[in-house]
Amino acid sequence: MRIDAHHHLWDLTAVNYPWLMEKGVARFFGDPSPIQRNYLLQEFRADAEAEGFGASVHIQVGAADPWTEAQWVQSIADQFPDWPLVQVAFCDLTADDLDTQLDRLQTLPSVRGIRQIIGRAPGEDAITGTNALLEDPKFLAGLKQLGARGLSFDLQLLPALMEQTANVMSRAPETQVALCHAGSPHDRTAQGLQNWADALKGLSNLPQVYCKLSGLGMFDHGWSAESVSPIVSTCLSQFGADRCMFGSNFPVDSLTSTYKDLVSRQQELIPCPLQDAVFHDTSKRFYRFDR
Domains in the chain and their CATH numbers? Predict the structure, then answer.
């Protein structure tokens, strides 16, 4: 059984996602209009099961009320016990009531970690201001608290922030970190990929940091196995298969490929002896699946 370590679900009648319902707004990952509809477990599961998957990790996805989203995901996990589903919820690690928020989230059995996005894309980050989290001592304190509670942190950022981020993460060594989308190498020129690979070393040198082979089509909408080969090989080389895990990033990545094509392209690039680790073992261990 394989595990998809990074995907989203949404029911637009149950949870409000302001970013998702903006009309006519182009995003760095493409035109969102095809995914501006309900995307439920049954649809995701049909695609995933066809490729040998039997469990998954839901990642928070910008709900107006993160607690409502987390409760909804828990309800899905409860409704479909034959599909092991755990989640990474949102929490502002700089919040004054962080203890209270984390206490509440940890009443949900499916919660394994927290994601608070540091960087999405160059143009969008200038608007959100999330890059400033790295300079906030409350953010570091929050990271440390996650580790003390046995919660992980899903890290989404851009290569330009990797050096600063590695410095912050090195000061919270007890907190396991999952680097989303291979660190978002948005510049796919030869020099851009070299700069990304060099910056990535600061994170890969930290033993508590893992890497998700996910979101590879967000900055390359016509991507192929060949075009992302340098990314996959660099991640496997720097982190090792025991710290790499597959994630579909569906339905966002459905804008650039089918689920079947996405899986087959990664299979083509990951040596057979490493596939058990990348498609199952690493994510089972990191996200603490019971089965």
Answer: 2-286 (3.20.20.140)
